[in-house]
Each structure stands twice: as structure tokens, then as C-alpha cells.
Design goal:
- The protein has about 190 residues and is of the alpha/beta class.
- The termini are far apart.
- It has helices spanning about 50-60, 75-85, 110-120, 135-145, 160-175, 180-185; strands at about 5-10, 30-35, 45-50, 65-70, 125, 150.
- The strands form two sheets. It has a four-stranded parallel beta sheet. It has a two-stranded antiparallel sheet with strand order 2-3.
- The model is unreliable at about 180-193 (pLDDT under 50).
């Protein structure tokens, strides 16, 4: 079996949404970035946790997953977000730019149909903050068809935690034959400060 894809969202996962007072987690550092379509005099301010880079690199180095950005940041995740976290260039799912007023126009996450087509029959673990119960049903249906699929859903105002990546590694290790899983060293010991 090929390694599952690790589909990684950015907003609400690596960039938490501010709380009611407009503050983000104290663990995050402010950055001004210039996404595609913006100019240097009109940057976007983001907050990233510097601990996320080493945590994600630990997961990547296990070789248990194939990391792919799955975000409306598209290629900008590779050129802007990844380098700030010390991540290597990663491919991304080419998502459309739909004209929607909600992230759940059909009762489920707008990305899902595009991701489903992109994945084909490949296994995947997807980290996103915006799943609905219909997305969880979809993951269960894919798994029942032999296309192992797991969804990991961080709190969008907190973002990614070490335990989410422990969940990813435990899920991927469970897909391996027992002898291989035992020799891979799949524990994520780092903790988010």
C-alpha cells in the first residue's frame, strides 16, 4: 500500500482565527506576507507557531505520509507559509476559486468534491478545521470502500496541536503491517510550547 496523503489546511490549522477580542494564541509569531494577487504595500498579516515546523518535519521524516497542501492558499502555502515554518516545498491540491458565501454550500466542506477527485482511490488523512458531519460520513464511506480516510479537526481558534499529529501517526501506523509499524518509531514526542 502506498503512503497515505497528509492533506494540510492552513487557515484555522496553522493560522488560527482570532478570538472575539482579535487576539491569537501567544505561541504564534506575527508575519506580513504578500500572497498572489497582492502587492507589497497591501500584505496579509498572519500568525504562525514556530513549533509547527519541527512537529510537521517529524511527521514528514517518518515517511508514513506524503504531505500535500490542501488550502485556499494554494501555491502560496509552498512559497509563503512553508518557508516561514522551515518546511520543504510541498505540492498542493489545485483548488478552484468558487464564488461562495459559506464554506459549506452543499452542507459539507466546499473543498471535498475536488479533494475526492484528486485522491482517486488513494488513502488520506486530512487536517482541516471546517469539516461537517457530512464530511465525516464521506470519510467513513471512503474507508468502507477500501480507501482509508481519516479527518483530523483542530479548533480554529487554537489551531494545530501536537496531539493532532500523534493522531495522524497513530492512524497511519495502524494501516501498516504490524512488524513494519513496530519498527517505524511513530511517536511524536515534541510538544507545542
Amino acid at each position: 500500500m502506498r503512503s497515505p496523503y497528509l492533506l494540510l489546511d492552513v487557515d484555522g490549522v496553522l493560522i488560527p482565527f482570532p478570538d472575539a477580542e482579535g487576539a491569537g494564541p501567544q505561541t504564534h509569531t506575527r508575519h506580513d506576507v504578500v500572497p498572489t494577487g497582492r502587492t507589497a504595500d497591501n500584505p496579509v498579516t498572519i500568525w504562525l507557531n514556530p513549533a509547527h515546523g519541527p512537529l510537521l518535519m517529524h511527521v514528514i521524516r517518518t515517511g508514513l505520509v506524503t504531505p500535500v497542501w490542501c488550502t485556499s492558499w494554494r501555491q502560496d502555502a509552498t512559497t509563503l507559509i512553508g518557508p516561514l515554518l522551515g518546511l520543504p516545498p510541498l505540492p498542493h491540491v489545485e483548488l478552484p476559486r468558487p464564488q461562495i458565501r459559506t464554506s459549506h454550500p452543499n452542507g459539507y466542506l466546499w473543498k471535498r468534491d475536488h479533494v475526492d477527485a484528486w485522491l482517486g482511490d488513494a488513502p488520506a488523512v486530512w487536517i482541516d478545521d471546517d469539516f461537517t458531519s457530512l464530511d465525516h460520513e464521506w470519510a467513513g464511506e471512503r474507508t468502507a470502500r477500501g480507501q482509508a480516510t481519516a479527518l483530523v479537526q483542530p479548533d480554529p481558534q487554537v489551531g494545530l496541536l501536537a496531539e493532532h499529529l500523534v493522531e495522524v501517526l497513530a492512524w497511519t501506523a495502524a494501516l501498516l503491517p504490524v512488524t513494519q509499524a513496530d519498527t517505524e518509531g511513530v511517536q511524536c514526542e515534541a510538544k507545542v510550547a
